[in-house]
Design a protein that fits this description.
The complex is a heterodimer of chains A (130) and B (275). Chain A is an all-alpha fold and 130 residues long. In chain A, 71% of the residues lie in helices and 0% in strands. Chain B has one domain. In chain B, strands 1-2 form a two-stranded antiparallel ribbon. The chains are: A mainly alpha (130), B mainly alpha (275).
């Protein structure tokens, strides 16, 4: 298994990240396609809307995710699925940084744990503070 | 007027062209959306979301094959995300007129890849102290030559600053800025071309996330725009990647020049018209 010694040397991390990326993207695209089909069945057209309900709104990203699962959805199930697809897409690179931080933590690689945590904290603050 | 189906089909075509020319889907799609009357800021914000899909999808296989250097990516992402957050914040507050001109100007950096493509890459035998302290080195198996290529990263601080500029442009214009990132990685950081492309693809997804985090609640992220763009550009990029080897280099180069020239003219025209 020559390849396992290559790259930056983090073979377990790389395998995990590779699967996280592809699963995240495929999940997201399937949700988008299902949402578009449902939207067509509900409204009979697929116009690009400027209705306030098709814009992502909220106070912070994580509260926004919570609201999608708990609140009412006046725009219908099509928009809800498409929104879930966008959430899956945004979470894909986010979760791979979380996985990297856990990996470097377990490996006790303090230097890269600090670097990864910097990236994670900055993006989390940017997703949260509005 | 565009609807989600026509935008999806258009995005497949643009994703295909973006993959063939190396420009990326968003660099072409944003000017096209502007042509169809979509507000430039909305097109930029939606472009950032589509980028997460195309770059993460294509980055996956490079990571699995150990061509991407995850440590280099994590280090450089500190700079690109900081730049992207600043860039996206600027976009939310400046006049759209400036964005047309900035977009046209940054498209010129796409020509950089031709300059360095002519030179043979020479790995750096030595390494500066900071890069060594960061442990920035690696190796990959080159299927073309059948050899393991080892490399040492250099000039990490200067390369980081270059990535700050790349992130700023990406966040501001809703694009991946891949050509610029690859140029910095090859010429400043002395990373081999294949590792540069793979690592750049990987970084682009995170940089786009940082840009999106600013646009999230700015009222610019339209779900009916983002969904067909993300699906279409990703499918187009997959098809483009598979068919890339069937085109001659000359045909791809002509296609590249025609598209970039058209996009620059269109954005400059739009900028002048909006003065």
């Amino acid at each position: 298994m020559k390849n396992e010694k290559l790259g930056s040397g983090e073979s377990g991390l790389e395998t995990a990240i590779s699967y996280m990326l592809i699963v995240g993207v495929i999940t997201s695209l399937l949700l988008e396609i299902a949402g578009i089909i449902l939207l067509y069945r509900s409204y009979g057209n697929l116009a690009i809307s400027q209705d306030a309900r098709v814009f992502i709104r909220g106070r912070d990203f994580f509260t926004f995710i919570y609201q999608q699962f708990t609140g009412s959805h006046p725009a219908g199930p099509g928009i809800l699925l498409m929104t879930a697809g966008i959430i899956a897409l945004i979470l894909t690179p986010y979760l791979r940084v979380v996985a990297s931080a856990i990996y470097f933590g377990v490996e006790k690689n303090v230097k890269y744990l600090v670097i990864t945590l910097f990236v994670l904290i900055v993006v989390t603050l940017s997703l949260t503070l509005h | 007027m565009l609807n989600m189906v026509s935008l999806g089909v258009l995005s497949i075509f643009v994703g295909f062209l973006g993959s063939l020319t190396g420009l990326g889907g968003a660099s072409i799609l944003i000017p096209v959306l502007v042509l169809f009357g979509i507000p430039v800021k909305e097109a930029i914000a939606s472009g950032m979301v589509a980028i997460i899909a195309t770059s993460s999808g294509s980055a996956s296989s490079f990571v699995r094959e150990r061509i991407t250097n995850v440590k280099v990516a994590m280090y450089l992402e500190m700079f690109t995300i900081s730049g992207a957050i600043v860039g996206a914040t600027i976009t939310t507050i400046i006049r759209p007129t400036f964005l047309y001109f900035f977009f046209a100007a940054f498209l010129l950096t796409a020509f950089l890849r031709f300059r360095h493509a002519l030179k043979e890459f020479m790995p750096s035998p030595a390494q500066d102290r900071f890069s060594r302290w960061l442990g920035l080195h690696g190796s990959y198996f080159d299927r073309y030559t059948g050899q393991v290529v080892e490399y040492k990263v250099n000039n990490s601080l200067l390369g980081g600053l270059g990535m700050l500029v790349a992130g700023l442009a990406a966040g501001m214009l809703g694009i991946g800025a891949g050509a610029f990132k690859v140029t910095v990685q090859e010429n400043v950081l002395r990373i081999p071309p294949k590792v540069s492309s793979a690592t750049s693809n990987f970084i682009i997804g995170m940089t786009a996330l940082a840009g999106v985090s600013v646009y999230l609640f700015s009222g610019l992220l339209n779900i009916t725009l983002m969904a067909p763009m993300a699906v279409g550009t990703t499918l187009g990029a997959v098809v483009g990647g598979r068919l890339l080897n069937r085109f001659s280099n000359k045909a791809l180069r002509v296609l590249f020049f025609v598209i970039v020239a058209y996009l620059i003219v269109q954005m400059v025209y739009k900028g002048i018209a909006s003065l």
